[in-house]
Amino acid sequence: MIKADSKLLSTLPPGFALHDTGEDGSQEYFLNMGPQHPSTHGVLKLVVKLDGEKVVEVVPHLGFIHRAIEKMGENESFVQYIHLTDRMDYLSSHINNLCVCMAIEKAMGIGVPERGEYIRVMVSELQRIQSHLLWWGSFGMDLGAVSTFLYGFKEREKITALFEELCGARLTMNFFRPGGSNSDVPETFLPRVKEIIQDLKFALDEFDALLTKNPIIIERTRGVGILPKERAISYGCSGPVARASGVDLDVRKHSPYSVYDRFEFDVPLGKNGDCYDRYWVRMEEMRQSIRILEQASAHFPPDPYRSKEKPNYKVPAGSYFASVETARGLFCTYMVSENAMKPYRIKSRSPNFSNLSAINEMSAGGKIADLVTILSTLDIIVPDIDR
C-alpha cells in the first residue's frame, strides 16, 4: 500500500484516479508491465491497477509494433499480400498464408490437386505442433521451470528444420500459393514426418511427467484466470482460449476446409475455462494433430502438387472470404476486388486481439503472480494484434 500525495497524483495518466481502500488512507497504485525495448518483436504494455498484490484492473496498451499491413495490402498484388500475413502471427505463418490462398482460389475458381491438399494439411498440423511446443517451453519458463524451454525447443527444432528444407525460412515462412504450393515436398518429407511423429509421442508423455502432473503447476493454474463460456463468446475468443471455456468451435471440424473432412480427430474442450484447461487443451491438440499426420502420411497421394501457376491474378469484382484454424484460433481473410490486379480493400481477422481483450475478465481479483500465468496461457503473439 502507498499513501496519497500531490506529487504521486500528478504523475498518473489522465483519467485514472486513486481511491482510499482503508482507514489508514492506503491507496491503490499502478504498475507498468512492459513495454520491453522497442527493437524487440512482440512489445506489449499492461497497465495494472493494484491493491497490494491484488489485481484490481488490467488495461492492455497496444500499437508499439503497428505496421499498417492491411493498408500496405491495397498497394500490392493479391499474391504479394500472402507474405504479409506471415508477419502477423509468425508462429502460424503457413496457416495464415493458406487463408489468403483460399480466398484467391474462391475468387478465381481455382482447384487444388489432392496431393496439394494433403501437403497443406500436413504442413498446417506440423506448424500447430511447432507453435504449441514454443508455447509450452515459454509457459514453463514463465512459471519458473527453466528446463522446459530446452525440452520444448529440442522437439520444435525437428519441425523447424523440416520447414527450412521446404521453403528456406525458419520463422516467417512462405510456402503456399493459389492452387497448391510454390514447390513439391522433397523425397525426405514423409520419412522425416514419420520420425517426428514417433519422437513427439514419447516427448508428450515426458512433458506430462515434467509439467502436466507437477503439483506446483497444478496449484498455480487450477481455478486461476477463469473465463466462463458465455464471456468467452461475448469477447469473440477462439482457438484454445475459447475451447478451454467449453466453446465447441474449430473450423477444421465444424466448417471443414481443404481435406480436413477426411480425417478423424477430436476437438478437446475444457470445463472450467481456467489456466489449467487452457494448458490441457493445447497439450491434447498436439496429440490430435499427430493423429491427423498419421492418417495423412498413410494415404499421401502422388503428383501433381499444384493446379495452376501464375505470377498474379486479376480478381473479378466482388467480395471474397475464407477462414482457417490457426494455432491461436480463427483467422479470416476478407477481400474486395474491383476487377483489378490489386485488392480495393483487404481485411484480416486474427485471433489474438479478441483473446487478449478478455485479460481483465480473467485477472481482476487475482494476484499479480497469477497475471503472469494468465498472460502465458493466452499465448499472445503481439504483432498479430497490432498489424
Report on this model:
The chain is an alpha+beta fold and 387 residues long. The chain has 2 domains: 2-61, no CATH class; 69-386, Cytochrome-c3 Hydrogenase, chain B (Orthogonal Bundle), CATH 1.10.645.10. 48% of the residues lie in helices and 13% in strands. The protein contains 16 helices and 10 strands. The protein has helices at residues 6-11, 69-73, 78-85, 93-108, 114-142, 147-167, 189-212, 215-221, 229-234, 239-244, 251-254, 275-298, 351-357, 359-363, 368-378, 382-386, and strands spanning 2-3, 26-27, 29-33, 45-51, 54-61, 176-177, 180-181, 318-325, 330-337, 345-349. The strands form 4 sheets. Strands 3-4-5 form a 3-stranded antiparallel sheet. Strands 8-9-10 form a 3-stranded antiparallel sheet. The mean pLDDT is 90.
Instruction: Write the CATH homologous superfamily of the largest domain.
Output: Cytochrome-c3 Hydrogenase, chain B
Helix content: 40-55%
Which CATH first-tier class of the largest domain would you pick? Mainly Alpha
Stated plainly, the CATH topology of the largest domain is called Cytochrome-c3 Hydrogenase, chain B
Unreliable stretches (pLDDT < 50, length at least 5) are none
Please give the number of β-strands.
Answer: 10
Count of DSSP H/I helices: 16
Biggest β-sheet strands, sense, barrel: 3 strands, antiparallel
> Which class of secondary structure composition applies to the elements?
alpha+beta
Radius of gyration: 22 Å
The domain tally reads: 2
CATH architecture call of the largest domain = Orthogonal Bundle
